[in-house]
Amino acid sequence: MQRLVITGSSGYLGRKLVAYFRRQGKTALGIDVQAPLEEASPDEFVEADIRDPDLLEAIREFDPDTIIHAAFVFQPMRDTKRMTDINIGGTENILRIVERLSPARFMLVSSATAFGAWPDNPVPMPEDWPLRARKEYQYAADKTEIEDRIDTFAAAQPQIAVSWIRPAIVGGPEMENYLSRFIFGMPFLAKLDGSDNPLQFVHEDDVAAATDAILLANGRGAYNLGPPDWTYTTEIARETNRRLLTLPFWLAWGAAWVAWTTRLWIHESPASFLYFARHPWVVAPHRLLNELDFEFRYTSTETVREIVRNR
Question: Which residue ranges of the chain lie beneath pLDDT 50?
Answer without folding.
Answer: none
